[in-house]
Each structure stands twice: as structure tokens, then as C-alpha cells.
Specification:
Bound molecules: zinc ion
Number of helices: 11
Radius of gyration: 19 Å
Length: about 325
Amino acid sequence: MSKKIKLISMVLAALMACAFMAGCGGAGSAAESAAVPTVITTTPSEEPSAEATPDPTATPEPTPDPTPEVTTNLAQLQAKEGYMPPKSLEGIDPLNDKVVALTFDDGPHPENTPKLLDILKENDVVATFFMVGTNVEEYPDIVKRVYDEGHEIGTHSWDHTDLMTLSLDEIMTNQYGKANDAIEAATGLRALIDRPPYGSMSEDMAEQTGREQILWSVDPNDWKKENRDPDIVYDHVVNGTPDGGYVQDGAIVLSHDIHATTVAAYDRIIKALKDEGYKFVTVTQMMQIAEIRGKDIEYRFGHAPTAKEAAESTASGSQSPEVESEE
Ligand code: ZN
């Protein structure tokens, strides 16, 4: 791939992410303003130019500081003091591995979250937990365990309010900010990513938060009463549903670790997805993979479709974003 094309694909990736969610310069308010990441906006100088760097005819240059093989813009966030660093892509081939991100909302729950952590540990996989601040405050030891065991944490508001009923200041201070205060009290670090309850957030508001607002591409509707059965949850994730979507390379699966029926399904779900060849990644890993892949990723930051989704929906007229469902 030429540098130019690569750059264009990076910019496309950045635009996709920025289109709905990313930190494209939105000024947060008091609580999280210091955290506003200037990521995702692609700065070409950040891109390691594999094609351009080694010039065989040049005299040997002093070896620069060791740099990771792949530097993503997201990785800049690692410099954010006081924040959980995005997980590295070590052990993952971002272009060739088949990846899926499991995400669990609304916890932590005093019994079900530890059970899920046991299952994840036994299967040696990582997941991402979008936590409600009130539960974080109530169960800080579980929050710490989640983080210590290598999983990722995002905020899911303070009290599961529909954020679109609030002002930006209220969201940043009383919801995400307060939830992050509790996460910091439990782990010593703040979370970089959020998921708005019910997926309820306008693109404009998401941009103004200056933080990553992460939705999902697969929704098994495990929270619905009629689906609170491990067999149904298993079926909805592994086999997919027309309404909730299908797991494919790059998917972000939404589930809820507050439900025993969901947790009871996950050992089988993980084993089934492993049998299909999936590797399990966190959301920040998925974001980096998406960035590296450019357009070839299937996940939703809100309403913004990937280029592939846009092409497919133009062709088939299907695929509506799910923002009114969930939790
Ligand atoms: Zn929720």
C-alpha cells in the first residue's frame, strides 16, 4: 500500500470515528475536560511510515527509541496521566485475526460479575465492562478485580439516566465525571471510554463530549424478560438475530453482567466463538484495529456507518442502527 493510500485510509478511519464519537476537539466541561483526548484525529506524523523509513542506501542512523510495530493514534492516549491506558495489540494480528469484543453493561453486580470474571479467566479472554457509577461506588472491590484481571472499564453514566435529557455540563460532571470519580476511587485510574445508557446520544452531543462514545454491533437483547434464559442468550449471540445482528470480524457484542442468565450463557458462547476462530479483544484494542484496518471493520460508533456498512446498506437497504433498545 502506498503511503498516500495508507494515509487516506487512516483519515477515513478517523473521519468515521469522528463522525459520531471521537474526541475531535469537543470541549468537555469541568469534570472531564482535562481528559479530552485529542485522539483519532489522524496526524500523519504519528503514522509509522513503514515504506518510507528504511532507506537501504542511507548510512546507518542512530537507533531511535524502541517504538511499537504499529503506532495508532489511540496509543497517544497512553500519555494521559491518571487514565487507564488503552490495551496494546500485543499478540494480535490486526489485519488478519478474526476479532470480537465482548462488552458488559450496567454492573458491577455483587454475584454475577464475579461469576463472569471466573468464566473469562478460565477461558483466558478479555472483555470490556461499561459500569454504572452507583454500582461502582457500591462494589469497588469488584471494579478493582475487573481491572486487575486485564479487562477494560468504561463508564455507563452515574445512574443510568437517558443522557439526552441532560445538558453537556450535566453529562460531563454529574454522569460521566461522577462515574469516573468512583472508578478512580476503586482503581486509581479513570476510564477513557463511555457508553451512553440506551445508546441514547446524538452525534452532535457525542462530539461535544470529546470522549469515545461506544455503542455495539450485536445486541442479543439479553436484558428482555423473555430472553432471560441462557440458551436464548447463547443462541442470540452465537447464531445472531435479524434485529440484534450477527457476530462477525470486528463485532462489538452488548450484554449485561447484572443478569445471571446472561452470565450463565457466556462459557458456552466464548467456547463457540473460539471454535469459529475468534480472538477476543477489548474496545480500545478494537478501536486500534479499526484504525489500522481503515474501513474494513464492522462496529458502530452511534449512527455513523463504516464505509463498508454504508456500501452494504446502499446495496441492500437494510441495517438500521439500534439506539432505542438495550437495558
Ligand atoms: Zn445500560
